[in-house]
């Protein structure tokens, strides 16, 4: 007989429900996601995206990334891999499951799996046989 309580898979699925996707990238990357409906403002009118331009400081990129990590309404952070490289220490220091941090390619910089810290961690958890 089945109880009314959700199973562990359902609980994990509900944990991410209602969460936002944050984006850190160049203008073309962020614009693409905004056109797809990703853009939101939190209750303090802070956006869930950062358009990184030539004059954007490294400190601003890292500060925004860390602020996204601490926001309760964000479930996934998409960051261009070339920018993740600039703040690699902050990306690798994040160990919680939520928000998930995913490195993505940008127009000018193709994706390099060897640089992706999340992929490296996943490879350490799974054996080659698990991936077949």
Brief digest:
By secondary structure, this protein is an alpha/beta fold.
Please outline the major beta sheet: 4 strands, parallel
Structural class: alpha/beta
- How many β strands by DSSP? 4
Helix-residue proportion: 25-40%
Quaternary structure annotation: single chain
What's the number of helices? Answer: 6
What is the rounded Rg?
A: 17 Å
Elements, N to C (H/E) = HEHEHEHHEH
N-to-C CA distance = 35 Å
Shape: globular
Report strand order across the widest sheet: 2-1-3-4
Unreliable parts: 1-15
Integer average pLDDT: 82
Indicate the proportion of strand residues.
Answer: 15-25%
InterPro entries: ATPase_V1-cplx_f_g_su (IPR008218), ATPase_V1-cplx_fsu_euk (IPR005772), ATPase_V1_fsu_sf (IPR036906)
Family: Belongs to the V-ATPase F subunit family.
Subunit structure: V-ATPase is a heteromultimeric enzyme made up of two complexes: the ATP-hydrolytic V1 complex and the proton translocation V0 complex.
Keywords: Hydrogen ion transport, Ion transport, Transport
Helix and strand arrangement:
Elements: H1 8-15, E1 20-25, H2 27-35, E2 49-51, H3 58-70, E3 74-80, H4 81-86, H5 88-93, E4 100-104, H6 117-125
What does this protein structure show overall?
Keywords: Hydrogen ion transport, Ion transport, Transport. Pfam families: ATP-synt_F. It comes from Grus japonensis. Belongs to the V-ATPase F subunit family. By secondary structure, the protein is of the alpha/beta class. Helix content is 39%, strand content 16%. It contains six helices and four strands. Strand 1, helix 2 and strand 2 form a beta-alpha-beta unit.
């Amino acid at each position: 007989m089945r109880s009314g309580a959700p199973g562990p898979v359902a609980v994990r699925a509900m944990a991410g429900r209602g969460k936002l996707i944050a984006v850190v990238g160049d203008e073309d990357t962020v614009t693409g996601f905004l056109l797809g409906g990703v853009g939101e403002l939190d209750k303090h009118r802070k956006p869930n995206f950062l358009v990184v331009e030539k004059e954007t400081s490294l400190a601003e990129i890292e500060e925004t990334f860390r602020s996204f990590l601490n926001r309760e309404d964000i479930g996934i952070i998409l960051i261009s891999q070339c920018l993740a490289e600039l703040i690699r220490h902050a990306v690798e220091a994040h160990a919680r499951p939520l928000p998930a941090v995913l490195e993505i390619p940008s127009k000018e910089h193709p994706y390099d799996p060897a640089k992706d810290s999340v992929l490296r961690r996943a490879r350490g958890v799974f054996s080659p046989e698990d991936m077949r």
